[in-house]
Each structure stands twice: as structure tokens, then as C-alpha cells.
Design goal:
The complex is a heterodimer.
Chain A lengths: L1 E10 L2 E11 L4 E6 L5 H9 L5 E7 L2 E2 L5 H7 L1 E4 L11 H8 L1 H7 L4 H13 L1 H5 L10 H13 L5 E5 L7 H18 L2 E6 L2 H7 L2 E6 L2 E7 H6 L1 H7 L8
Parallel strand pairs in A: 3-8, 3-9, 6-7, 7-8
Antiparallel strand pairs in A: 1-2, 1-4, 4-5, 9-10
Helix pairs in contact in A: 3-7
Chain B lengths: L1 H30 L6 H18 L4 H24 L7 H22 L16 E3 L2 E3 L1 H23 L1 H11 L1 H6 L4 H27 L5 H16 L4 H22 L4 H15 L14
Antiparallel strand pairs in B: 1-2
Classes of the chains: A alpha/beta, B mainly alpha.
């Protein structure tokens, strides 16, 4: 579904991602793990088109998408839940969701029934958002904000969902809840998911395969089972040390 | 009753200032730029209406609409030709570019038209309306009514249309707006268009009262900027509050002290706010995240 070949991403002269190649098959949950600054976020930003300085190829369903503007990429079926959620704090929960369907609304006239149905579907996944639908997004708790960010991304009916650190800054209970929803999204809505996480243990639990980035380069890849068993990954990312064993 | 008269003319001129201040706010919210060419949109609204009415002999209402549209189209041109090509430049550079735009537009207006002052007839004659013992020129009422209606329409646009909501979203977080599929460049262009329409409308509405000329944008632009700052830069309700306060202060100081001092008092008020309350009347202090 998504094939990335020799991707390089630049911040000015700095190369944040170096010759990265990976792929995501339809129906998979794939995780990219890595420390802060390893190039995970830059990779996602390159795919969704908000990082313009890229080299290499990003191919989505046999079409090259790098260089396309973000609103075109959203229309093709890729939706990105950014790091730090980035809601519109001055708009209500409902309006945030509405804007998630912006390309569709623009094409089909304001406030169509289909969009209302999509909003109800998001409320069915996250009932707590329904209770808060007229509240400003800026007043939600961290967990609710993450739910809204995912809900907003689902409003464009993506086939590929990019999730950047959905567990960031959340209590463990909420993290479990969010990860459960991510698994259900694949099962119930058939969404393919590319997940970026620092919480490697959680991410590998729900994903099929994983890639490990270190300062912009790919260092390991394999099935989640393999990665979980690898000694080096356990030491570096899963917080297990040989010391106590 | 002079005081009533000062009050009505103050509110009236103030609501025109509010329209200009809204113009500043729209562009500021969309791009972070203080647009120094804002006054030229005001001038184009007025001079354009004069041109279409006196030289092309349009009926008054069409002349005014054409003048306002001329300002709006110029707003789009400013965005497309001078802002978008260097969108990644610093805010300061962009502001300096708008100063260039303003000099250019003023120069073209002077060459195409002339250096004289021009008038438009009042929209509904000059017979004053008696109001609480004061004689009020009907044009003042036109200015107030048209300003309020257009502000309500703008409020409805932001609240009830998807494009309006997209503009609000793009102004708080352009990256997130891009990610949900909003074409932020397009939305920025809309902001310039609406901004210039509002300012052009102020110019056309005021021309029967204050006359217009190719260089009137300098002072009216500054007045609108002062209104935006007094109310709280970027706040639409602030534009209304700031505009009305400025208009009333100006009108009373012209009436009670001397019209020679009215600009000094207006800009004194601007400086006072910049020193004492830079966030304006309805603004909040923003915590800067480092």
C-alpha cells in the first residue's frame, strides 16, 4: 500500500532522515520506534506532505506522492494524527470533527448528512467526545484531546492512518484505552496503520511489524515478535537490562 | 445638542474605523503580518467609487460596489504577487514588503487618477435627520448601519460556514489545517480578499463625509491600525470596541478642543495602549511557549 524508497528528509541543511526504505501492506499495523530525534516524526511529516524538502520516493497505491501538497494527499486517503495532537483549541469538538471532513464538505456542500453520520460514528468509538461535543477543544483533558485528534483524522475516511506518538503525556490507563481503539480501527474499519511510538513495548504489542530508527537511519526491521525478542532492542527500547537477569 | 451630534458622528466614523481594523485583523490572523497597505484598500474603495461614479457614470450603488470590489481584487493581487512568492520569509520582511505595496498602489492611483480631493454624493441626500435635538447627517446613519450589517455577516460567516471555520482553524494552527486537507494558501487569499473588501467599504462609506484622495490611505490606515491595537490585535470584537472608542474620542476632541488636535489625541491613545495595555481592551495576555 505504502512504499518508501531511499527517503531523505531535510531541515534546512540538516538531514533528519537518511536513505530510509520501508513499506506498509494493506491491513497491517506497522510501528516505527526510535528515540527522540531519530527521524520518526520527520518520516510521517514527509508522507503527509508537510515536510517539503525530501528526496527519494514515497509511493502510495502505485502513485508517487512526494511533492504533492498535503490537502491532495489527504484526499488520496492518508490521514495524519500529528505529534502533540494539534487540535483547533478555539473551536468546539464538533467543529474540529467537521473540519476533519473538510475536503469532502468542500466538494459536496456544507454540512451534508454523510458528514453527520461520520461524526456519529466517531462518537460511537469515543462516547466521551459526544458528551463534550459543544465544548471548546482546548478545554479537554489530554486523553480526550488524543481521542479527538484520532476522530478528526478518521473524518476523511482514510485508508492509511499515520499516528504520531498517541501515548505521549497520557496516563497508562488512557494509553491502554487508546491502543485498544487503534487495534479496533483496523478490525472494524479496515484502516491500515503506521504508528510512531517511543512507548515501544505497547506499540509492538499491537503491531504486525516494526522498524527501528536511530539518528535518521534504519537499524532493525522485522516482525513485532522478532523485535520483542531481540536482546539489543530489549536493552535499548524496551527498558529491560541484562543487569538483573 | 452638540454632544449628541458629536456622539453620533463619533460612533459613525468609529464604525468605519472598525471595518478597517477588521481588515487588519483578518490579515494578521491569517499570516501574522501587519499589513501597511491596508490604508490603500480604503483609498481604493473611495477613489474607485468616485471613478466609477463621476467618470464612468455608473449609478451610485453600482459605483460603490465596483469601488469596493476593486479594493477586494487588489487585496488578492497583493497576496498573490507580493506575499505568496516569499511566504517563507520572516514576518518583518513581509511587513516591509507591504510598505512597498502601499507606496506602489498609492503611486499608481496618483498616476491613473489625480492628486485632487474628490467627493461622492451622500447615499440618501443631505437633509439632516433630527435626533434628540441634534441634526444628524443621514450618511452617518448609513455608515453605522452598513458597518454593523457587514460585521454581523462576517460573524455568521465564521460561525456557520465551513470556509469560515477553516479560516479560524488556519489562523490558530496552519500545519494542523493542512493536515485535515485545508488548502491554507487558498484560505489566506480569501482573508486578503475579505480584508480588502471591508477596508474598501469603509473608504466608500466615508467619502461623502470626509472626501477622498490618492493619499488618504496613510491616515485612515493608521486610524484603523490604532483601532485594532486599542481593541486587541486579531480580535474581531476588539476591532468594533476599538473603532468606536477611537471615533468617539476623535469626535469629542475635535468638537470640544480643536479639530487640529484630533489626530494627535488619537495617536496619543494608540501610544498609551501600546505602552500600558498592548494586548488591547478585549485581548488576553498570551503566554509564550518557548
Amino acid at each position: 500500500m505504502l512504499v518508501v524508497r531511499n527517503l531523505e528528509v531535510f531541515y534546512g541543511k540538516l538531514r533528519a532522515v537518511k536513505s530510509l526504505s520501508f513499506h506498509v501492506n494493506e491491513g497491517e499495523i506497522v510501528t516505527i520506534i526510535g528515540a527522540n530525534g531519530s527521524g520518526k516524526t520527520s518520516t510521517l511529516r514527509a508522507i503527509s506532505g508537510i515536510m517539503v524538502k525530501t528526496r527519494g520516493e514515497i509511493i502510495f497505491e502505485n502513485e508517487r506522492i512526494n511533492g504533492l501538497p498535503p490537502h491532495v494527499i489527504v484526499n488520496m486517503g492518508i490521514s495524519h494524527v500529528p505529534e502533540g495532537r494539534r487540535l483547533f483549541p478555539n473551536l468546539t469538538v464538533r467543529d474540529n470533527l467537521l473540519l476533519g471532513a473538510y475536503p469532502y464538505l468542500k466538494k459536496n456542500g456544507d454540512f451534508s448528512k454523510i458528514v453527520k453520520d461520520r461524526i456519529e460514528q466517531v462518537f460511537a468509538i469515543f462516547p466521551r467526545l459526544k458528551e463534550r461535543s459543544d465544548q471548546l477543544a482546548g478545554t479537554l483533558s489530554g486523553g480526550e484531546q488524543q481521542m479527538l485528534a484520532i476522530g478528526r483524522a478518521l473524518m476523511s475516511r482514510p485508508r492509511l492512518l499515520l499516528l504520531d506518538e498517541p501515548s505521549m503525556g497520557l496516563a497508562p490507563v488512557i494509553v491502554n484505552e487508546i491502543f485498544k481503539v487503534i487495534e479496533e480501527l483496523r478490525k472494524d474499519m479496515g484502516v491500515t496503520i503506521l504508528l510512531v511510538e517511543q512507548n515501544a513495548r505497547k506499540a509492538l504489542e499491537i503491531s504486525d511489524r516494526g522498524y527501528v530508527l536511530e539518528s535518521g537511519s534504519l537499524v532493525y526491521s522485522g516482525s513485532s515478535e522478532e523485535l520483542k525478542k531481540s536482546k539489543e532492542i530489549q536493552r535499548a527500547y524496551l527498558g529491560k537490562s541484562d543487569f538483573f537477569e | 445638542m452638540d454632544l449628541i451630534q458629536y456622539l453620533v458622528s463619533g460612533i459613525s466614523i468609529g464604525s468605519a474605523y472598525a471595518l478597517i481594523a477588521i481588515g487588519f485583523n483578518l490579515i494578521y490572523n491569517a499570516t501574522g503580518i501587519i499589513n501597511f497597505a491596508q490604508g490603500e484598500f480604503v483609498m481604493l474603495g473611495g477613489m474607485g467609487s468616485v471613478y466609477f461614479y463621476h467618470y464612468l457614470h455608473f449609478p451610485l450603488i453600482f459605483a460603490i460596489l465596483s469601488g469596493i470590489l476593486l479594493a477586494g481584487v487588489t487585496g488578492i493581487l497583493v497576496e498573490r504577487l507580493s506575499i505568496r512568492p516569499i511566504r517563507d520569509a520572516s514576518i518583518l520582511s513581509l511587513i516591509i514588503v507591504t510598505i512597498g505595496d502601499s507606496i506602489l498602489i498609492r503611486g499608481i492611483a496618483m498616476l491613473v487618477w489625480d492628486k485632487n480631493s474628490h467627493a461622492l454624493p451622500s447615499f440618501s441626500g443631505d437633509i439632516p435627520i433630527r435626533f434628540l435635538g441634534a441634526a444628524v447627517s443621514p450618511q452617518y446613519i448609513w455608515i453605522i448601519v452598513v458597518s454593523i450589517i457587514s460585521m454581523l455577516l462576517l460573524g455568521g460567516f465564521f460561525r456557520y460556514t465551513i470556509t469560515g471555520k477553516a479560516m479560524l482553524a488556519s489562523s490558530v494552527d496552519p500545519v494542523a489545517a493542512r493536515l485535515v486537507g485545508i488548502n491554507v494558501e487558498r484560505v489566506t487569499m480569501y482573508s486578503f480578499f475579505i480584508s480588502a473588501l471591508f477596508s474598501g467599504m469603509a473608504g466608500a462609506l466615508m467619502t461623502p463625509v470626509t472626501l477622498t484622495s490618492y493619499d488618504i490611505g496613510i491616515s485612515l490606515g493608521l486610524k484603523g491600525f490604532a483601532a485594532a491595537v486599542v481593541g486587541g490585535l486579531g480580535r474581531m470584537s476588539g476591532a468594533l470596541v476599538g473603532g468606536i472608542i477611537l471615533g468617539i474620542v476623535e469626535s469629542f476632541s475635535a468638537g470640544l478642543i480643536s479639530s487640529g488636535y484630533k489626530d494627535a489625541i488619537t495617536f496619543g491613545l494608540l501610544l498609551l495602549f501600546l505602552y500600558m495595555r498592548p494586548q488591547g481592551i478585549v485581548g488576553e495576555i498570551k503566554a509564550e511557549r518557548v
